[in-house]
Amino acid sequence: MGEAVLVNRKKFVSSLANELVEPFNELSKNTRITKTRLLDEAIEDLLKKYEQKGV
Known about the structure:
The chain is mainly α. It is built from two helices and no strands. The relative contact order is 0.08.
């Protein structure tokens, strides 16, 4: 079977610090929010933070 077609998303690869993996997994599990959605929220917040700093 082929890969899913992503219409509203782009695939990218990254890594996460070892000490963040389990808390991130637990947050997703406890909130029932997908990791993808949590990452979207985190990136949006990060972009706003640096936009406010004029970067």
